[in-house]
Amino acid sequence: MPRPIQATVHTEALRANLARLRRAAGDARVWGVVKADAYGHGIERVYEPFRAVDGFALLDLTEAERVRALGWRGPVLLLEGVFDTRDLELCSRLSLWHTVHCEEQIDMLAVHKTHAPHRVFLKMNSGMNRLGFAPQAFRGAWTRLNALPQVDEITLMTHFSDADTARGIAHQMRVFADATHDLPGERSLSNSAAALRFADDGAVRADWIRPGIALYGGAPDYPTHDIAHWGIAPTSTLSSRIISVQHLVAGDTVGYGSTYTAPAAMRIGLVACGYADGYPRHAPTGTPVLVDGLRTRTLGRVSMDMMAVDLTELSPAGIGAEVTLWGRGPRGSVLPVDEVAHAAGTVSYELLCALAPRVPVLTD
C-alpha cells in the first residue's frame, strides 16, 4: 500500500471563504489570488470553487495560461507585471492585465506593437519599499502611461505592509491619497488583512480587493485573531498515520541531535511525515498535532520522512492511528494551520506553499 500521508483540499471551504471575503468587500470587486499554485492548493483544484471571483490575480505567465486553459474569460492580473518585452505578446494574446511598477516596464510597453491596448495597474510604493513608484514619481509614471496608445485603462494600486499589525494602514493611506487625489481610474489597495480588518471603510475597500491567505484558511493577523474570529474555514488538511510506537524510560532521547530527553517513562509514536513532505524541519518540540482527533505535541527534531509525537496520555492510540498535521481531524476536530506555523516560528503561507510534490492530494 502507499505511504500513509496525504493532503486534502476542501472545496466547500474554499467557496465559503470566498463568500466571506465578498461580504467584506461590499460593492468592491474581488480578485482571487492564485499565485504560488493557489497557495499550494493547485490552481486546477481551486478553479471551480473560485469561479465566483471577479478576476484571478497571479504571478507569472504559466499560471495565467493555466487559468485561461480552464476556460476563464474574465480578468487575469499579473501582480508583478512582465519581465521582458516579449512577455507583452502573450499579454496581448491572452488579454492579460498587468502591473507596472518601474520605468523599465513603461519602456517595454512603449515599443510593444499591439492591436488592442492593455489594461494596466500602476503600483505605488507607499511605504512597503518593495515594488512600485515612489509617491513623488507616481504622477509622472501615470502621465507617461496615459500618453501611450498601447495603454487603455489605468488602475491605481498599492500594497500594505502593516495591515495585520497594530501600526495599521493609516500612514500608507495618507501617502496614497495625497499622491493620487485628482487622478482618474479605479483603485486596488486591500490584501486579506486590510479587507477584513477595515471592511467598514469604503476608501480601503476601493474598487478591487486582493485577498490571498484568507481564501485558503489562514487568519491574516494571527495570533491577534484566529480563523474562528474571522469566520474562515480550513481549506486543506495534511494527514498521516502512526507507523511505529516506542516506549521510553527516563533519560532516553528522541531523534537527531538528541534534542528531547524523556523526563519519565513515555510512549511515543512515529508519524510518516517529515520535512521532505513539506512539514517544517524547524518545528520545535511542543508543536501541536492531533492523533485520532486528540491534541498532543511533537517531540525532538523533524526528520526527512518521519516525526515523533507524544502518545503518553493517548493510551488507545497505536500503529495506524490517524494523525492530523494541520486542518480537519476526525470527529469534528480542527488544528488550524496558523497554530502549527506559529509554533514553528513562521506563517501559514509558508506551510501551505511548501507541500512537497511527493504528497498525494485529494479533493472533497
Distance between the amino and carboxyl termini:
21 Å
Name of the CATH superfamily of the largest domain: Alanine racemase
Instruction: Indicate the structural class.
Output: alpha/beta
Number of helices: 13
* Strand runs, count: 19
How would you describe the oligomerization state of the chains in this entry? single chain
Q: What's the CATH C level of the largest domain?
A: Alpha Beta
Q: Any idea what the shape is?
A: elongated
Total separate domains = 2
Q: Using only CA atoms, what is the Rg?
A: 23 Å
Keywords:
TIM Barrel, Lyase, Ornithine Decarboxylase, Chain A, domain 1, 2 domains, eight-stranded parallel beta barrel, six-stranded antiparallel barrel, 25% strand
How would you explain this protein's 3D organization?
The protein has 2 domains: 11-218, Alanine racemase (TIM Barrel, Alpha-Beta Barrel); 236-363, Beta Barrel (Lyase, Ornithine Decarboxylase, Chain A, domain 1), CATH 2.40.37. It has 13 helices and 19 strands. It has helices at residues 11-25, 35-39, 43-46, 61-69, 87-94, 103-111, 135-147, 170-180, 192-197, 202-205, 227-230, 337-343, 348-353, and strands spanning 6-9, 29-33, 55-58, 76-78, 97-100, 118-124, 151-158, 187-190, 208-209, 236-248, 253-254, 260-261, 266-271, 288-291, 294-299, 307-310, 322-328, 334-335, 361-363. α7 packs across α8 (170-180). The longest helix is centred in the N-terminal third of the chain and has 15 residues, at 11-25. The two termini are 21 Å apart.
